[in-house]
Amino acid sequence: MPAAPQEVRIDGRRLRLTNLDKVMYPATGTTKGEVIDYLTRIAPAMLPHLDGRPVTRIRWPDGTGEGSFFAKHLEAGAPSWVARRPIEHSTGAKDYPLVDGIPALVYLAQVASIELHVPQWRFDPDGARGNPDRLVLDLDPGPGAGLAECAEVARWARAILTDLGMDPLPVTSGSKGIHLYAPLDGSRTSEQISAFAKELARALEADHPDLVVSQMSKAARPDKVFLDWSQNNGKKTTIAPYSLRGRERPTVAAPRTWAELADPDLRHLLFDEVLARVAADGDLLAPLAPTDAGPLRSYIAKRSAAKTPEPVPDSPAGAASPGASRFVIQEHHARRLHYDLRLERDGVLVSWAVPRGIPESASTNHLAVMTEPHPMEYLDFAGDIPAGEYGAGSMSIWDTGTFELEKWRDDEVIFTATGRGDGPLGSVRLALIRTSGQGEKSQWLLHRMKTDAATPKTPPAPPSAPRPMLATNSTPSLARLAADRWGGWVEFKWDGVRALGVWDGARLHLRARSGTDITARYPELTADPGLGSAPCVIDGEIVALDERNRPSFPLLQHRMHLTKPAEIQREATRIPVQYLLFDVLEVDGTDASSLPLAQRRELLERIAADTTDTIVLPPVADDVDDALATAEKLGLEGLVVKDPSSPYRRGERSEQWLKVKLTLMQEVVIGGIRPGKGDRSGAIGSLLMGVPTDNGLHYVGRVGSGFSDATLARLDAALTPLRTEENPFVDVGRAEASDALWVKPELVGEVEYAEATPNGTLRHARWRGLRPDKTPSEVRPGG
C-alpha cells in the first residue's frame, strides 16, 4: 500500500508530501523519501551554489527508469512561497524558480525534479541578470574516452588557468565527465567569458590534438574529450553542484580534490558517499559560493558605509537573535513622507514601507510595500540620509517596542505590537496580508484587527418564522458601473465567477448567479471549510490562481465547465481555486441583508475566523486611489466601491455599490461565427459579438484572438447545436455577414478590448471566456 500523504512544516513553510515510498532509482531501490532526505541534509553545502540563480529542471515523475521532461517555467500548482523571477523568451516571459531554502528544495523533489541546472550568473538585487560570477568548463568524454582522459585534460586546463591567476576546482558530473569551475569578479559579460572559454578550448586542442576537441560536431569526438566552452553562454545552464543525476543509480555532481583526479580508479560518487564527504570535509567548492549570500545582501548592495550614517554590516548573514521580538516604526521624510514598519525575524528586521502609517481603525486598510530586510542595528537608527543616497531624507523613530506573534506565513503576518510607554502606538493587533508579488516590492495591505471592538449586534429577528436558506431566496446583490469614484468602502473586483455559499453546518453548497448548483465542481471548497457550526448564506467570488498567485479568469475556464468527477479531480489538482468572501446574507436562519454593510462585515469576520486556506476573507480599504493603484499592479479588473451603510439588495443594482473598472472588458452575446482560414481552416476563425438593445441585438464587432485549441473545441461543441439560418443582429455589415454562420443568441462571453468606437464597436478585442453564469438579458453596454 502506498505511503499516506504527509503534511509537514519546514522552516515555517507547509508542504504536502506524497508517494514517499515511490522508487525513483529502480537499480538501487532509492525512494522519493530518500531523495528528499538527501536534499535536506546536503542543503547547507548546496544552497549557496543555487543562491540567486534561476533553476531549470529535468523531472522524472515515474522514476529514472521511465521518461523525463525538461521544465523551465514554474508549474501553476507550485506554492506561492516558492520564489521566482521572470526571464523573457520569444514566446513571452517565463517564471523560473529560485531555490532560497530547504522548503524549495523539498518542493522540487516532491514534483520529481531530480536534476537542477543553473547558469553561471545570478540575478542582481533589482531582479536583472547579472554578469557571470564563475567560469565553467565541461569536459565531456566521447566514445572510447572516460574519466581518466577527462582528468588529464582538466590538469592541462588547470595549468593555463593558474597562470592567469584563476584557481579552478573540479567536479565529477555524476553523468560522464568533469566540470571545472573558477570564480570570477563579475566585471565581464557572459559573451566575454564565453569567448575566453572558447579560446582556451582552442588552445588546448592545438596543444593536444590527439585528446582534446573544441568543436561541437559529435563526429569529431571518438576517443577524445570535448571541452564544452558554450556552458558560459548566458542562456545555457549546467548541472548544479551537489545535484542528483537522473541515471540508473543516484549519482551526484560531486566536488572533488585534485589529488582524487589522479586516482586511476576515479569514478562518480553516490549520494550517500557525498553526504559522508561533506560531513567530514565540508564544501570543497566553498571558494565559489557567493560571499554576499545572505538576507542583508540587497540592503548592503544599495548602501555605502562611507556615504550614509545608516548601519552597514560587513556580513550579509544577519545577526544572532536574542530571542526577543522587537519592532520599530520609523517616520521617513524621503521623496514622500511614509512610515517604515520593521519586525525582528531570523536575525534581521523584515521591513515594509507604509505610505499612510498604521491604520487608525479596523475599518481602514493601508497599502504596505515590502522592502529589503534591514540589519538589527536599525532598531534605534535616526538621522539624515544624504541627498543622492538610497532613501535620502530624514529618519526618526515614531515608536518602538515588542510584539507578540500569532502567525507568520509568506502571505500573512498577524501580531500584537506594544509600543513604548510614551509612544503614540499603544498596543494594537495588526495583520499584514500579501496581495501581489514576492519579496522586495511585493504589495501588502496593513489591517488593524477588531480585538477591542464591541461585539456586533445580533440581527433583529424577522416578524415571521426564519426563511429556509435556499439559493432561490438569495439572489446576489449587484453593482452599477461608476462614472465617478467616491470613497467609503473599497473592495477589489476579483477575476472569477460569483457564487452564493449555503452552509448547513456540515457542507458548503455553492450556487451560481443563475441558481445552478455548482457544488460538485469545486470539491476543495465544500468539505469542512471551517465556517463554524451555525448555518449561514454567504456571498463571494470563486477564483483560480495563476503561477503568480493572481486571479485568472482564463485559467478558471478550465474548471467552471467540468461535470465529470474524474476530470474535476484532475483539474482541481492542477488548477487550485479559492472562494473569496465579501458579504453575508443570513446567519443561523436570521436575515442579515437589511443590516448595514459595516455590521455585516463584522458578522462575516466572525464566520470566517477559522476557515481553511481555500476560503478567504480579503481585507477592505477606504482609500480609492491607493486601492486602485494596487489593483492596477495586480492586473485586476478594478474595484467595487460600496457605501458602508448599504443593505444587501437581492437581485438589484444599487447606486450604493459602484464598479470602478481598470481593464476595458465587455460581456457580449455570441450571434455568429466567421469560418477560419489557414491554420484554422475548418474551425472557428472569429466570433461575431452583440449587445442587446431595445431595438434588438446590436453588432459590436468580432473577436478572433485569445483562443486556445481547447477553447475552440469547447466553443464549437457549445455553438453547433445553436446554428440557425436567421441573422440575430439588427445592424451587422454586409462584409461581416457574407460568410457568417449564424447562431441563436443564447451564449454570453467576455472580451477585453483596447477602445470602443462612437458606434460601440470594440477594437482589438481578445477572448477571455464563456460566462455561463450570465444570461443575454443581463448583458449591457459598458458592463
What can you see in these coordinates?
The chain is of the alpha+beta class and 783 residues long. It folds into five domains: 6-119, DNA primase, PRIM domain; 131-236, Alpha-Beta Plaits (2-Layer Sandwich); 297-448, no CATH class; 471-661, D-amino Acid Aminotransferase, Chain A, domain 1, CATH 3.30.470.30; 665-778, OB fold (Dihydrolipoamide Acetyltransferase, E2P) (Beta Barrel), CATH 2.40.50. 18% of the residues lie in helices and 32% in strands. The protein has 14 helices and 45 strands. An eight-stranded antiparallel barrel has the order 19-20-21-22-27-26-25-24. Strands 15-16-12-14-13-18 form a six-stranded mixed sheet, with helices on one face. Strand 38 (665-675) and strand 39 form a beta hairpin. Helix 1 (32-50) packs across helix 2 and helix 1 crosses helix 6. The longest helix has 19 residues, at 32-50. It is globular and about 85 Å long. Mean pLDDT is 86; it is low at 452-473 and 483-487.
